[in-house]
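Appendix B. Raw example, untouched.
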Amino acid sequence: MSFDIALSGIQAINDSLDVTSHNIANAGTYGYKASRANFSTLVAGNQVTGVQVGSTTQNIGLQGGILNTGRSLDASINGKGFFIAKDAATGEIQYTRVGIFDASKDGYLIDASGRKVQGYPVDVQTGVMGAQGDITIPTGAIPAVASEKVSYVGNLSADWVAPSAGWTAPATAADAPDTATFNMSKASVIYDTLGGKHTLTQYFARTGGGSGASTANSVDVHYVLDGLEVGTPTTMTFDGTTGQMLTPDPAADAGSITIGLAGTTTANGGVLNDIVINYTGTTGFAGEATTSTNNADGYASGTFSGVTLGEDGSVIASYTNGQKQTIGRLAVATFPDEGALTAVSDTSWTTSIASGEPLVTAAGVGMAGTINVSTLEQSNVDITSELVGLMTSQRNYQANSKVIQTESTMLQSLMQAI
């Protein structure tokens, strides 16, 4: 009997060594969760007959270290939760902590195993998230968007003196306004419906130009599009005490004026929209004239150039025209008992009855952890503990071998006596 018990001990130690060696071999595997062999007693009736590895426990809940990779499509989860992926062959939903993503040739966000990553598609116009599913990546071109708004914020110096000559509109597109007719100019690039670029230039001049006297706290603005004057000049006024803009009225007019360009056909066949210029925040203090904001909306058409991840788990597509669009958001699943998930590989799991159904949300919502971009979660294997376990197994193996050796010696002595 002692011989059989010792043999069962050696077999159990061999099984335990398999688990330990597997842990050590995967110490560098991203998202790997260390396993532990659990010994249990073999009992036949009322008699102890040895030992066995009764179960293997995987330490899923212990997070591994975070490694900075610098790759924009790598991600790790800081806290609880799993990325969700759908197997391309079987359609089975699997869960993983390995966030190595890429764009497939057929326009899906996939992981390193070729599985389709699950998340929430985002409407690029409204920013509203849709129902959970595959994250599709629009790899084609995006159309041009005609400009409608220009934001301008600056300080129009109260020290300006009215220009010596009155404003004269350019006679042709090739003519430039006389520098003696304005104090400062600022150009903005706007786009027509076909994505054609056009230059809208604002010429600022202290009111009173050519009349021999400057009107304090008042600035005239003239608008020139591609070399020709458009719209109606604007007179901006400022409070002489606070330096804040009075007209355009920040309250009644939202600090804006409108240049009527709608329906204007350009040389390339494109059409322009009305342009609303918002001056809110512009001041009339003494000192240097400055410009802090001069931005126009709209853009030319562009083709897909790549995809990156945002800190909130957003999937962001980039295009050759410099535009970026949030096209989706990664989903993160949490479980009532993640330790009871069924392993399908060393780094992927499926649900079980004991694990409970997943609670799926966006990253950072509820119990779901946050996303670390350009990082990967390393294995949670503790090499030191594994090496200590190896030495312990070695001593146990030697002890059981000694039992067998002793039993053999006793049997030899008995046979000799007989």
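End of appendix B.
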